[in-house]
Amino acid sequence: MKFTKMQALGNNYIYVSLYETTLPEVSLPELSRLVSDVRRGIGSDGLITIEESRQADVRMRIFNADGSEAESCGNGLRCVAKYVYEHRLVNTSVFSIETKAGVVEAQVHVRPDGSVKQVTIDMGEPRFGAGSIRYAGNSVIGDEDVVLEVGTDQLQGTIVNVGNPHFVTMVDRVDDNYVQAVGPLVESHKDFPERINAEFVSVVNRNEIDFRVYERGSGITFACGTGACASVAALVRKNLVDERVTVHLLGGDLEIEIRDDGHVLMTGEAVTVAEGTFAWPSAEPVFTAL
Ligand SMILES: N[C@@H](CCC[C@H](N)C(=O)O)C(=O)O
User: Fold this and answer.
1) 118 in the same domain as 135
2) What are phi and psi of 48, to 5 degrees?
3) Pocket test for ligand 1, best of 64, 66, 68, 121 (most atoms within 8 A of CB)
């Protein structure tokens, strides 16, 4: 199986273009678990396939490192956009990408040598509150917040659906130890039957925020594009930041803009790390031992 490893702000996936290669006879969740394993596979935050679409110019599917399929992936969308443009699977710099959550628009910023380093994605309009996801709790506050019982603490956060689900909590200062301790409890909280991505954000000023994430199905990652979009959308709704915000993530910065029509625009890097062939037959026995 041919693959490309790409990363965006350190959020790295194995990309498999079904235009150019065939998949081994294994389910995609299994394949994602296998390639994501840094010791027995390749090592990544998950697997992304690039496929033909009936509704858009191309289609992507995203699987987390634990094999669960997500609806969307912001960093993945930017890498897919770079990939399909540079591989001439599209011939315009603005094109559409189908995800499990619907179709979004990508714009690649083409450099003089024809390569792409920066990509903007129009992520569409976010939805807010318990009604925008599968929520099984009974602790709703206002239109968009819920309170979770986490150990002996109560944690208030904003629910935002940007294709996939997010719980955005404000903290005084981002703290990686806190994210490691509390993130998994939020991700798998009983109030979220489909689990959730947990974001911890602190406002630096009206145009900058610090951000950490514990991703559903992948744990702590260096960056989460949809999480950054969800966080800025939540903070704009609470009038705590302006409509253009630089999000400082563990892996670097993302520029997020909330347009007048409510659409969230995300701009940031997309980088190719390696291309190769995954030796599936020799890997198979290793996988079955997992
Ligand atoms: N890292 C991604 C999000 C990947 C999916 C997420 N873990 C989920 O399960 O919803 C991003 O950049 O948005």
Assistant:
1) no
2) -130, 130
3) 64
Indicate whether 132 and 238 sit together in one domain.
yes
Report, in angstroms and rounded to the nearest whole number, the Rg of the chain calculated over CA atoms.
Answer: 18
Give the pLDDT confidence score for residue 23 in this predicted structure. Answer: 87
Task: Please name the residue whose Cα sits nearest to atom 2 of ligand 1.
Answer: 73
Residue 73 annotated among the catalytic residues of the structure: yes
* ipTM of the complex, rounded to two decimals: 0.99
Q: pLDDT tens across 13-48, in order?
A: 999 999 999 888 789 999 999 999 999 999 999 999
- For residues 233 and 158, give the distance between their C-alpha atoms in angstroms, rounded to a whole number: 10
- Residues 153 and 97 both lie in one domain: no
215 Cβ inside 6 Å of ligand 1 = yes
| C-alpha dihedral, 262 to 74 to 49 to 4, nearest 10° | 140
Look at residue 287 in the predicted model and tell me its pLDDT: 39
**Residues of the chain falling short of pLDDT 70:** 280-290
Number of H helices, E strands in the chain: 5, 20
Split into its structural domains, the chain has a count of 2
Is the domain of 149 the same as that of 253?
Answer: yes
Active-site annotation holds for 229: no
* 11 carries a ligand binding annotation: yes
Residue 27 identity: S
Residue 264 placed within a domain? no
> Could you tell me which residues come within 8 angstroms of residue 29 by beta carbon, excluding any fewer than 6 positions away?
63, 67, 68, 69
Q: Which of 224, 250, 258, 265 is catalytic?
A: 224
